[in-house]
Design brief:
single chain; mainly alpha; 0% strand
């Protein structure tokens, strides 16, 4: 595990949070998709990944509140 951390730090050096561009996540995800041999996009990944039922995001809460009122 320590070796993997060093590999990550070599590839992605530690940066301060306020310096990281807003598009960094999208850029990182796109780099991963481009390295894959399969024909899919990030939305395919998000749609098929495991989602813990006890964890909700803000959009889901807003949607639930819309139907409760």
């Amino acid at each position: 595990m320590a070796t993997q951390k060093w590999n990550i730090w070599d590839y992605r050096p530690i940066e301060k949070r306020d310096i990281v561009a807003q598009t960094s996540l999208e850029k990182f995800q796109q780099e991963i998709i481009e390295r894959c041999e399969y024909d899919f996009n990030i939305q395919d990944v998000l749609d098929t990944m495991y989602k813990d039922p006890s964890i909700v995001n803000s959009e889901e809460v807003k949607l639930q509140n819309k139907y409760v009122k």
